[in-house]
Amino acid sequence: MSDEFLRDALAGLTAEPKSLPGKYLWDETGSDLFDRICHSADYYPTIQETALLPQAAADVARLVAPGVTVVEFGSGASRKIRTLLDALPDPSAYVAIDISGEYLEAAIRRLAPDYPGIAMVPVCADYSKPVRLPISAGPGGVLGFYPGTSIGNLEPREAGLFLERARQTLGPSLFLVGADGTSDPERLQRAYGAADGLMAAFHGNMLTRLNRELGADFDRDNFRHDIRLCHDPLRVEARLVATRAASYRLGDRTITLAAAEGIRTDTSHKYTADAFRTLAAASGWTPRALWQAEGGSFNLHLLQAEA
Ligand SMILES: C[S@@+](CC[C@H](N)C(=O)[O-])C[C@H]1O[C@@H](n2cnc3c(N)ncnc32)[C@H](O)[C@@H]1O
């Protein structure tokens, strides 16, 4: 992992403009900070999706047979999955895929006692690469779940490739995917640029990881968190901006930042329902159903892949 982390970090920090891949936001600290962000009143995606899930889960439950295997990509704290597991007819297994290994194990330890009849299968893996399920599908087939705004954190081309890979991983299946469609600048500013400091800590943690895991010497105090609303396509970009010019060591390279130069640490793309359906169809999925909050400010899509 650390060879790849160093390679990716050097590639991003020696390019112009500078960036770091968002997947490195997720270690135990990053996952914990994100869970706290999800509980904040300004982080509307969790609030809206959580409100949509009971109806979506009840509708999906009517479409799957008993014994379904549920596979979640980017399972995080494994909170939303409870709504699905509670509604589905006798699910046989829950496969939780996440890159944040220790946090994943702890989330499954918390979940498992409440679902003694369901096999719990944590899989620490990077879903930007092919992932193979470690168990075969249950008698009720496979239901994929990719909630939150995670698909938006991938560049649109990467999101298309992710959906293709997910089709390979899941095989013939249904796939419930969340996609944020919010375009209101004030709401986006409140959610991503929140004044409570949690977003800043979440992004700043990436520098702590570079120092701890790769022996770099970034001075966190020299960076402030900033967001930018960009168009065509609509997205929020998060940056760590150097307050003064400085040079840092990373591997055998020196990374030099000018004053006010930013490092992009994450992007959150927003999709209208139609734009997401087009992306999914181009990746081999058939859109089957849609649940919408506030006329499309958050969308839960049900996709289907045939044999
Ligand atoms: C935005 S959070 C969503 C968490 C949760 N599913 C929710 O809806 O609240 C993204 C999750 O995906 C995981 N993740 C991010 N990039 C990943 C990758 N490349 N491979 C596997 N997991 C990843 C993170 O560790 C995190 O738990």
Task: Describe this structure as you would to a colleague.
This protein is of the alpha/beta class and 307 residues long. The protein folds into two domains: 2-39 and 185-269, no CATH class; 44-182 and 270-305, Rossmann fold (3-Layer(aba) Sandwich). The protein is built from nine helices and 13 strands. The protein has helices at 2-13, 28-38, 44-61, 81-87, 101-111, 156-170, 185-192, 198-214, 273-282; strands at residues 18-19, 69-73, 93-98, 119-124, 142-146, 173-180, 223-230, 235-242, 246-250, 253-257, 262-269, 286-293, 298-305. The strands form three sheets. It has a seven-stranded mixed beta sheet with strand order 4-3-2-5-6-13-12, with helices on both faces. A four-stranded mixed beta sheet has the order 1-11-8-7. β9 and β10 form a beta hairpin. The two termini are 34 Å apart. The protein binds S-adenosylmethionine. S-adenosylmethionine binds at residues 23, 26, 31, 34, 38, 46, 74-76, 80, 97-100, 126-128, 147-150.
What ligand molecules are bound, each kind once? S-adenosylmethionine
Sum up the overall morphology in one term.
Answer: globular
Helix content: 25-40%
Just give the CATH class of the largest domain: Alpha Beta
**What's the CATH architecture name of the largest domain?**
3-Layer(aba) Sandwich
CATH topology of the largest domain: Rossmann fold
List the helices and strands in order. Answer: HEHHEHEHEEHEHHEEEEEHEE
Number of strands: 13
Strand content: 25-35%
Strand order of the largest sheet: 4-3-2-5-6-13-12
Q: Please identify the structural class as seen in this structure.
A: alpha/beta
CATH superfamily of the largest domain: Vaccinia Virus protein VP39
* Rg calc: 19 Å
Mean pLDDT: 97
Point out poorly predicted stretches: none
What is the number of domains? 2
Termini gap: 34 Å
Tally of contiguous helical segments:
9
Largest sheet: 7 strands, mixed
Enzyme class: transferase
EC number: 2.1.1.44
Protein name: L-histidine N(Alpha)-methyltransferase
Domain Histidine-specific methyltransferase SAM-dependent: 7-304
